[in-house]
Records
---
Amino acid sequence: MFGFLPHNLFTNHVGKSTSGLSPRLWSRVTGTVMASDGDKRLVLAGDDFGSFFGTVASKVGDYSGGYKSYEETGGTITQRPTYKGGVIAITSDGTDNDDMALAAGGATGVLGAISDTAADAHLTAFECRFSVSAVTDDMGALFVGLTEEGLAAAASMTDNTGVMADKDYIGFCTVHTNGGTTGTNAILKAQYKKSGQTAQTPIAALQTLVADTWYKVGFVYDPAAPPAKRITFYLNNAEQATYVTATNIAAATFPDAEELTFSALTHQGGATGAWSLYLDWWAFGQVI
């Protein structure tokens, strides 16, 4: 699915600074399957962007692997030819409030759901590796993570703030103010939201982004974990000390049992300063 080669990512990791999947995160998934003595299986999806091509017409693109995009005039989504193994660049042309978006599964496809209902409570993991080309006052906002289907569209992020639209999602994002301070634009958060509810930010300052620096961000939902640690966030293979609890998941603000897919979004924060979100890979796994 989506051109993903799971054995490459699973074998090319040793520590937090390597380019492959984070072992502390994914060992929880593989360990659960092995401990089940064959009663469970791991469903994998993702992409290392080794082969990425497509066409764009009237701001809407269709790319290999089943991706749908929304690209403002002057923006592009292209492979970076100088990077081996596949890296794509989602690039704004510097026009204020321009949206750029890429969603797996076209307009309707989904990967799975995070549910606390016993019959559907599956261990679920997500991770991706990304960087940004610049951190400036006008850089704007970004999101990488899981969202409801069809989010590759205009206004997926709000003008002048970069706040995510009123959709279902869980992932990692920044916000901005036009002409705001670089420090504000560069602060990466862990956040989730159920459509129609107020966004929740378990980690308000996960990482201050630095230009041309790679980051691996992800999470594991484990329905068998202690209630205080149902969702664990990871940054560069390191477990974070703030969690999403069973009570949080049961609340109306969490996208409980909502169908989700991978999305990557950017929003231009000012009238100058074209910039790119670089994606090396993303991965999704669910034990069923």
---
Amino acid sequence: MGAVQVQRTLVKSLPEVWAQLSETELLAPLFGDTFGEIAITRLDAESRIEWEGEHANGLVELEARGFGTRVRLTALVEDPPPPPEPEPEPRRSWLARLLRRPAPAAPEPEPVPEPEPLLEPAAARSALSGLLDEVGAARHRPFSRRD
């Protein structure tokens, strides 16, 4: 498994960021469809959120930092499978080589089912960065101004 990680310090309080990320109903839409359906599997109060998705698993780490919150997102994505090894050519007998007869045709290999597409690390990184952009965006807070 390969790890894709992004981090950023957001100018928001730790409780505010925690409130945006600590519930599956709020976290899942922030990822979009990149990781498929996700579920939060473990919470450590205001510091760590572990999640599992259809296409990856991950971790959200939070830490109060100066005037904001450092958010580190990690997604564990499957490494692509190794390419198939080439079929060895059939060995010809010494008599066939001596008489220069062609080697017998190799049997047709059985078709291999198409594997499910893997989540590309670039797509995972983009989804994680998008989540940080969304969570870090300034929002109008009602009653925060006096008119």
